[in-house]
Amino acid sequence: MAKLLKINGLYAGIEEKELLHGISLEIDKGETHVLMGPNGAGKSTLGHTLMGSPEYEVTGGTIEFDGEDITELGADKRAQKGLFLSFQNPIEIPGISLSAFLRSALEQRTGERIKLMAFQKKLRAAMEVLQMDPEYAERDLNVGFSGGEKKKAEILQLLMLDPRLAILDETDSGLDVDAVKTVSAGVAEYRRENENSLLIITHNTKILESLKVDRTHIIAGGRIVAEGGPELIEDVNKNGFEKYVQAERGEA
Amino acid sequence: MKEKTQVEDINRGFYDFRFEEDEKDMLQSGITPDIIREISEEKNDPQWMREFRLKSLEIYNSTEMPPWGPSIEGLDMSKIVTYIRSKSRMNNQWEDVPQDIKETFERLGIPQAEREKLAGVGAQYDSELVYHNVRREVAEQGVVYTDLESAMYDERYADMIREHFMKLVPPTDHKFAALHGAVWSGGSFVYVPKGVHVDIPLQSYFRLNAQGAGQFEHTLIIVDEGAYLHFIEGCSAPKYYVASLHAGCVELFVAKNATLRYSTIENWSKNMYNLNTKRAIVEEGGKIEWVSGSFGSHVSYLYPMSILHGRGARAEFTGITFAGEGQDLDTGAKVVHAAPETSSYMNTRSISKSGGVNTFRSAVTVNRNAVGSKSSVSCESLMLDSISRSDTIPAMDIRTDDADIGHEAKIGRISDEAVFYLMSRGLSEENAKALIVSGFADNVSKELPLEYAVEMNNLITIEMKGSIG
Questions:
Q1: Which of A38, A151, A237, B245 is found 20 to 30 A from B158 (Cα to Cα)?
Q2: Structural contact between residues B298 and B272, judged by C-beta atoms closer than 8 angstroms
Q3: Which of B47-51, B83-87, B417-421, B433-437 comes out lowest in average pLDDT?
Q4: Alpha-carbon gap: B437 to the closest alpha carbon of chain A (Å)
Q5: Domain boundaries, given as residue ranges, for chain B
């Protein structure tokens, strides 16, 4: 059976500058993967490229999702197939409420009209998991939200859209301990569905404490330099990225 | 290949049908004393109006074109037909309006809107009003809503009109005000007596059907002490291949503690020169609320002005403009604080795309005596591509230290990052852009009169269409 996500020798960059130099990575249904690396290693670039950001150009390799080559697809098509990216810096969109946006996004994903009652019930339940004030549903999307509320709103969208693979880009950065706990509870809720998969991008490990990690990838200088089980996380915690960065320099 | 999309122009197909007019009904083009006399003859003007028109023509001939703003070189005044005889006398029975005119307005949803949402309706077709009607219960409150021409001959209003006509906007104001004074025709006269609260709006609809013509309607509204009125004007014209001109004039008198809300939905065709002048004077404790949606015309010069003349008078201006390909829309608002404790508030949004140009001018004057006054101006512009333009030109003349003045301007492009963010949640590129644009306009567009359902659907709905890039 095909892997849910299969990245084959992916090269990507901005204009003349190549940032990813042949990344290969596979994620199966129901797996939780962690992508770690120092600042500027290419973590966010990979996340955005997987989601189809027009900012990055793919210059080599392919991305397959559920056996289908999605390398040339727009972000909307990828989302409709079940890919999701939680943004490190969610964008403020004035004039549209969080709940109206979620309804519209759900309708576009499913191609069906969403019944208001069922939608509101689901939204309330998800907001409760994330300890969000229900008032936020009627506020303009991310406008004037604190850093923590923005991250919660991202996880709220994750829970509502229920994608097949969620990429969390530094969702834990800038959050206090309590907020990390709340966000982790939301992520755990998403993972309760056995088939759902996760790729967690982080340079910090607090968010991983409540999750069972299947596989860890270390990225440095736009290359995957080490792979292993959850034990890699502990190693990074203890010793930092230095030796991986050295290894990458040696290779390059 | 990536799919590229663009925000499409507002669908105008709806407005672009037109019926042919009879050539014999059109006066000779250009502006001469003979033509002015002919208009006076045709309209059976009282003597003072005949003199007023000729005097205005003299001022017109001795006044220069405005030396600033968008180019109006494409406007050849010698080719503009200033007056078109009406095929019909003014009617107050819809059935009596000539068939082709009736059909035009029916397609625009006018009689339907009247039945459902309005206290009264006036409809002008080219130079003359063809229909005017006001609900009986509103008329019984003493509210007058008629065309200026008949009101001038009604002894109850004749003096009132003579006293107010072109006193706020004198023909000496600028070249097109002088032109208006010479060739004006049609429009509305509204009087709301003391203390009368008109609960549902009155509406005038202006339709310029003939090509190469001008429309010069005059709107004169007097809202007496403590009264309230919401007046809506809608404008449209079919597509022509020759330049047309709209140089209307709106004069609004808001008495002590009265409130007037004046809403405009303007969707002239893309070769219309819209050189319109609007002005309100507000007495003690009174309020003027302007709501303005400008979507059409090739070139617009439009800066409604509020003169806050009495203590505590207030002005609010809410505007949205949408400039597409070939449009140069120079809009804004002016306020003069001429009494203590007056306040003004301007809030505008402009959207430009496909090379459209939006210029927003605000002018706030606070006189020395206007102590304790407040003014706040906020304008935001959104450009949907790199070939469109947006400018903001604020002017302030503050002559007292005791005033609270605020100004905020934001100009931005639609952000690729925001589009990607929304697309990553499953919205198509066109839907993502439409959402950003409508969200941007939301604050202002919700002020537009929803009563005008047919217009709204056509003007606010932004059509999006995909094309392969």
A1: B245
A2: yes
A3: B83-87
A4: 9
A5: 3-302+414-468
Per-residue confidence (pLDDT) for residue B397, from 0 to 100: 96
The answer to whether the CB atoms of A91 and B435 lie below 8 A apart is no
Instruction: Sketch out chain A's domains with CATH numbers.
Output: 5-91+162-251 (3.40.50.300)
Best probe of the A interface among B378, B413, B421, B443, by most A CBs < 10 A, is B421
Contact B400, B365 (CB under 8 A): no
pLDDT at residue B288 tops 90: yes
Rounded distance between C-alpha atoms, residue B133 and residue B146, angstroms: 8
Judge: A76–B435 Cβ closer than 8 Å, yes or no.
no
Name residues of chain A where pLDDT drops below 70.
1, 251-252
Contact state of B439 with A95 under an 8 Å Cβ cutoff: yes
pLDDT confidence of residue B37: 94
Please report the beta strands in B237-342, taking only residues with DSSP state E, as ranges in sequence order. Answer: 244-246, 249-254, 259-267, 272-275, 277-282, 287-294, 299-302, 305-308, 314-323, 328-337
3 state SS of A238: helix
- Cβ count within 10 A of residue B433: 23
pLDDT value, residue B464 = 36
Q: Mean pLDDT, to the nearest integer, of B121-140?
A: 75
Q: Alpha-carbon distance A167 to A163, whole Å?
A: 10
pTM assigned to the model? 0.81
Find the helix or strand (DSSP H, E) in which B445 lies. Answer: helix B429-445
> Residue B89: its pLDDT value, please?
60
Is ipTM over 0.90?
A: yes
- Mutation for testing the B interface, residue in A70, A76, A140 having most B CBs under 10 Å: A76
Half-sphere exposure at residue B177, Cβ-oriented, CA atoms within 13 angstroms: 18
**Average pLDDT estimate for B391-412:** 93
Other CB atoms within 10 A of residue B137 CB: 10
> What are B25's two structure tokens?
């009904």
Integer Cα distance of B226 and B112 in angstroms: 31
